[in-house]
Amino acid sequence: xxxxxxxxxxxxxxxxxxxxxxxxxxxxxxxxxxxxxxxxxxxxxxxxxxxxxxxxxxxxxxxxxxxxxxxxxxxxxxxxxxxxxxxxxxxxxxxxxxxxxxxxxxxxxxxxxxxxxxxxxxxxxxxxxxxxxxxxxxxxxxxxxxxxxxxxxxxxxxxxxxxxxxxxxxxxxxxxxxxxxxxxxxxxxxxxxxxxxxxxxxxxxxxxxxxxxxxxxxxxxxxxxxxxxxxxxxxxxxxxxxxxxxxxxxxxxxxxxxxxxxxxxxxxxxxxxxxxxxxxxxxxxxxxxxxxxxxxxxxxxxxxxxxxxxxxxxxxxxxxxxxxxxxxxxxxxxxxxxxxxxxxxxxxxxxxxxxxxxxxxxx
Length: 363
Prior knowledge:
Blueprint: H1 2-22, H2 35-39, H3 42-62, H4 67-91, E1 96-97, E2 122-126, H5 136-145, E3 150-154, H6 158-170, E4 176-181, E5 190-195, E6 202-204, E7 222-226, E8 233-238, H7 247-260, E9 271-276, H8 281-284, E10 299-300, H9 301-305, E11 326-330, E12 334-341, E13 355-361
Parallel strand pairs: 2-3, 8-9
Antiparallel strand pairs: 1-12, 2-13, 3-5, 4-5, 6-7, 7-8, 9-11, 10-11, 12-13
């Protein structure tokens, strides 16, 4: 009798745990400690499930008295792995949606037109540089190669941002530099945003001090709005990581970012936000306020392009075993023409992969 009850408890506990880990949104647990970490690594979860399945197969073959319980647990693990594979396939494992030719780009000596209607496209590059680790030359070279109009750089100081802008100006692609720093002690406490003058003049509206309503709590986010109101609001994101003692700040950061991207505050030309959200689509669940949106009124470019299952952190891990926590998001004013998780910079020094998306006004 005791053995039957014990086995029943094991089966029920395993079913509950695997269900929560496979789809924590069902129970509202996607933003809780441990579960938040587990669900962010769905590819790794498939590998662990396969390893446990192999171990249970050995138990099944060797232990006659445990075969019933073992068989049930093996079914549960197989279903758990299948659910995670299904989620990854639905979100997409392609690392890139090719960019269209930018034939509509104005020549370098053409006058700038800041109206969204006249903007052929905007290419947004985002890279958490782990405290300037790749160096200004490498970052500038990547931005130039991608023909970036907007560059969001969490963990990047103003000094490095200026050097990047100078290198890009020398190559014929000048950029304005906007940096918000909570302190100058840790480079992680600085976020830099570069914007092409072709998009018009921008002013930073996010507060220098940490915490809502003016900014994210621990690491700075840069919110820049067009001076003449004719372009999109641009947000360079850096939310704190969901470590045990920062869970409250992490949830608050995601709530605040959703507010920056809501319909009421997006303006006529919408919002484009990019950076290190330290969150996957699972963690965004419950924070969308529009159909098809991921966060506030913003849609996820990677999900649209079929690459939302590709890991951006850590850079040393295979893409399908990493966590897709770096995003480019935009309101419905913008459509996704291209999206890529860049893997050529895995040895550049940062623990994040850069992501780049090309957006154009929705017709």
